[in-house]
Specification:
Layout lengths: L1 E7 L3 H12 L4 E5 L6 H6 L1 H20 L14 H25 L3 E4 L1 E6 L2 E5 L4 E10 L3 E3 L12 E2 L1 H4 L8 E5 L3 H12 L3 E5 L11 H14 L2 E3 L4 E6 L4 E5 L5 E3 L1 E4 L3 E3 L6 H4 L22 E3 L10 H17 L11 E3 L4 E6 L2 H7 L3 E7 L4 H6 L5 E7 L5 E8 L2 H13 L4 H5 L10 H10 L7
Parallel strand pairs: 1-2, 1-6, 2-3, 6-17, 8-15, 9-10, 9-15, 10-11
Antiparallel strand pairs: 4-5, 5-6, 7-16, 12-13, 13-14, 18-19, 19-22, 20-21, 21-22
The protein binds 1,4-dihydronicotinamide adenine dinucleotide (NAI).
């Protein structure tokens, strides 16, 4: 069987690339070894974690937060099985949706593992078995949880995000290794449901890579929520015993707990792809290097998403998939890496786009800062959700928006406006002079933009 394009992997990068290629008239196949389409993001990542974050936040609000709204409820009870079932139903609806999109776009789907057998050829083994050829291949095989020396994932008491999405009872004590995005999102879920959550982080701050103002504010707020943080802590081992797990940390007593969540980053999925057969090498981190058009060192073979260097984000992979396919078909395709937002779905949410203050300082770029607190916003007050702020960074000479950093209610939705501003090359004044409806949280973005020129109105 031959196709114009074969996409390996049906995560957000792969399935979106396949759909865009079909729209552009290519005969497309997509190979996925899991029975469900959608990849880690849909099956065991973004979607189920957001479902649980929503449910656990409602449970937490019902227990404590509703009182301030004058809403009293009787005895609060957790039905964890029902909560997990709703999460599974959310996932199932979306993975079926992707299967529907494949049908609508006439994409041929192979269920099995793809291995290159030589230039321009691969075999599929699994539920479907086939030998296929194509002119173009896109490797979009994603990533898997990274492990650390001395810590072996057993899937029972020591697991990764996949297990932490499905604990069948609320752990009395959960130890999270790594205060990155996964550790804090899933740590939040179980903290709200009643676990004691200890977070062991190697660095001296949480959420490395974020603007340091954000990371400091988040640390302060999350500590208040009850997270037990141990920064500068190097985990040296973890083992499962019969009815508990024990975690060893340099310079600390061993910690006993019920569950360990290892959230220390992810590794590119490039094993068993038969890259040798086409003469394609990975870098030291096991990733596939590409040029700006996502071409690998082998002609006709492209790679996108978590398998290539850069941020591991579903929406980055999607944009890369589209740009890669558009370049193949039209000769033009581009991703603006300065305008890719990143969101942490904790409460409050944390969202960022563009450069951090630290990056601007390192690059020697002069900038102005505008900042506005949610506390001074009418809608945030009405919601009863006032922690956090919006910060906008703009070039000192041109006023062009270079970065935006938000911690607060619905930060993940508010950041979209800032990403569009950066994409359009907007100035802070462009945002400040755009009418923002009242009363909305988005007014904080406008006020922060006004703040760049030192003229916020409400603060
Ligand atoms: P991460 O890279 O965000 O954080 C890992 C943390 O583990 C770091 O803070 C690191 O310093 C720490 N660490 C590493 N080794 C350690 C050790 N031996 N002892 C203690 N701490 C140690 O990785 P994470 O949270 O596992 O997420 C993986 C990827 O998935 C990230 O690239 C993330 O962007 C992505 N993701 C994105 C989400 C979102 O966009 N909302 C949600 C979940 C994951």
């Amino acid at each position: 069987m031959t196709h114009d394009l074969i996409v390996i992997g049906a995560g957000p990068g792969g399935y979106v690339a396949a759909i865009r290629a079909a729209q552009l008239g290519l005969n497309v196949a997509c190979i996925e070894r899991e029975p469900e389409l959608g990849g880690t993001c849909l099956r065991v990542g973004c979607i189920p974690s957001k479902a649980l974050l929503e449910s656990s936040e409602l449970y937490h609000e019902a227990g404590d937060g509703l009182k301030k709204h004058g809403v009293k409820i009787g005895k609060l009870e957790l039905d964890l099985a029902a909560m997990l079932k709703r999460k599974d139903a959310t996932v199932s609806a979306l993975t079926k949706g992707v299967a529907g999109l494949f049908k609508k776009n006439n994409i041929t789907r192979y269920e099995g593992t793809a291995t290159f057998t030589g230039k321009g050829a691969l075999k599929v083994e699994g539920k479907d078995n086939a030998e296929l050829t194509a002119k173009h291949f896109i490797i979009a095989t994603g990533s898997k949880p990274a492990t650390i020396p001395g810590v072996e994932l057993d899937g029972k008491r020591i697991g990764c995000s996949t297990e932490a999405l499905s604990y069948d009872e609320v752990p009395e004590h959960l130890v999270v290794i790594g205060a990155g995005v996964i550790g804090l999102e899933l740590g939040s879920v179980w903290l709200r449901l009643g676990s004691k959550v200890t977070v062991l982080e190697y660095m001296d701050h949480i959420l490395p890579g974020l603007d340091s103002d954000l990371s400091k504010e988040a640390h302060k707020l999350f500590k208040k929520q009850g997270f037990d943080f141990h920064l500068g802590s190097k985990v040296t081992g973890a083992k499962s015993l019969k009815d508990k797990a024990v975690v060893s940390v340099d310079g600390m007593d061993d910690i006993e707990c019920d569950q360990v969540l290892v959230a220390t980053g992810r590794w590119a999925n490039t094993d068993n792809l038969g890259l040798d057969a086409i003469g394609l090498e990975t870098n030291k981190r096991g990733q596939i290097e590409v040029n700006e058009h996502f071409e690998t060192a082998v002609e006709g073979v492209y790679a996108i998403g978590d398998v290539i260097p850069g941020l591991m984000l579903a929406h980055k992979a999607e944009d890369e998939g589209v740009a890669c396919v558009e370049h193949i078909v039209t000769g033009v395709g581009h991703v603006n890496y300065d305008a890719i937002p990143g969101i942490v779905y904790t409460h409050p949410e944390i969202a960022s786009v563009g450069k951090t203050e630290q990056e601007l300082q390192t690059a020697g770029i002069e900038y102005n800062v505008g900042k506005f607190n949610f506390m001074a916003n009418g809608r945030a007050r009405a919601l009863g959700d006032t922690a956090g702020w919006v910060k906008i960074l703009a070039d000192k000479q041109t006023d062009r928006v270079l970065g935006a950093h938000i911690i607060g209610p619905r930060a993940g939705d508010l950041i979209a406006e800032c990403a569009v501003a950066i994409e359009f090359g907007a100035s802070a004044e462009d945002i400040a002079r755009s009418c923002h409806a009242h009363p909305t949280l988005a007014e904080c973005v406008k006020e922060a933009a006004l703040g760049v020129a030192g003229r916020t109105i409400h603060m």
